[in-house]
Amino acid sequence: MATGWGSLLQEEQQLEELARQAVDRALAEGVLLRTSQEPRSSDVVSYAPFTLFPSLVPSALLEQAYAVQMDFNMLVDAVSQNAAFLEQTLSSTIKRDNFTAHLFDIHKQVLKEGIAQTVFLGLNRSDYMFQRNADGSPALKQIEINTISASFGGLASRTPAVHRHVLNVLNKTKEAAKILSNNPSKGLALGITRAWELYGSANALVLLIAQEKERNIFDQRAIENELLARNIHVIRRRFEDVSEKGSLDQDRRLFMDGQEVAVVYFRDGYMPSQYSPQNWEARLLLERSCAVKCPDIATQLAGTKKVQQELSRMGVLEMLLPGQPETVARLRATFAGLYSLDMGEEGDQAIAEAIVAPSQFVLKPQREGGGNNLYGEEMVQALERLKDSEERASYILMEKIKPEPFGNCLLRPGSPVQVVQCISELGIFGVYVRQGKTLVMNKHVGHLLRTKAIEHADGGVAAGVAVLDNPYPV
Ligand code: ADP
Ligand code: MG
Fold first, then answer.
1. pLDDT digit string, tens, across residues 144-178
2. Catalytic residue among 25, 164, 237, 305
3. Residue 47 in contact with residue 463, Cβ under 8 Å?
4. What pTM value is reported for the model?
5. Does the active-site annotation cover 125?
């Protein structure tokens, strides 16, 4: 398998000129971020970092990732409806992880009161890396599934034009035509639209829960624009605004500034630092309402690393998706090794193995947003510290995936154009809508390829480590 663009990467001067053209095209296409200096304002913006060339991805793996997405949608939805499974799975974690415990408390409160919401909307992104099987064939291995704030569906629809441009400049028109079109933001908006319609109130709004400082606003705007084109109005509010101006009526309909809300779309609320006591109150208010939450609290919990690890245990997929052996087989084929660190023999053994062979494992806490996992010597130190404490149950261990590195240029504002060794991570966006017990929409709606230099073990685009890319199918 060829891994790259070969001699094209050797012409330093040509790369610089190409990069200038690529950056200008990216700006023209709207591949934008606000700057870290002015994250609240769109007065000054720059391009979102991206690769100069699309990165080679085996077509078979792309197809496999697309084909399994509807299965993952169903699985997440099944987990979110299975209160007993969530409770059992998270019982040891919530004793030691305050954030998960807080989410779980809200989940319990809503269950006790009775769930007012009747329409459910999932917008998720399942992420994968590629690695070789023992026989040399390439394999797709899931890193995680994001069930809240899965981002970059908007910017990912604008990057194909940039890579086609680069290849056209090089007179590689046939290659340019191979770059797949991609429009996740449209698909995500169609899911929100369906949920909004089923909610059934012509004047109700979509409430986007936004952060005060949001560099990635253009990604979100892409979805807002699609909704407005369908005559669905979006308001952006912070948790603080909800706690000041949000209310429920006696039927638990949600009102914001006096206007009814049909769908709440979270682009905030996935990290502990995003919650003050006031924000937790606001989250509870939203969860208690009959508005469609994307995601509802149970679906957020279904996306925890602990749930991911338990799903890989023998018999669990079969229990959650009874009578669907083919679905189960497709899902399981993408699972890497996942190990519980709950107190007991199984956890003891996993810890012992990771301490002996640290390069084979990743230690993960129940966190989202990148930069939280531990690798190598740091992981060993953490395991030594944790191994006799119940705190270890708030982590899981995962087999480390080892993709084959390839050369590409990572273009970032203010950084020199140079070829570095990289690895990629593929994400597939999934959308589903359920009304009561009936799944009325289940789709994949596009992809995201992110690429980073091999020296960074962790982190995505928002964390400043990975950059936007496109798969070049081979
Ligand atoms: P987060 O929720 O913080 O995004 P992830 O599980 O996606 O957590 O991990 C963050 C990053 O760490 C991933 O984007 C990937 O680059 C790297 N990573 C995570 N799990 C593995 C793994 N099993 N093998 C290799 N790299 C991994
Ligand atoms: Mg991730």
1. 999 999 999 999 999 999 999 999 999 999 999 99
2. 305
3. no
4. 0.97
5. yes
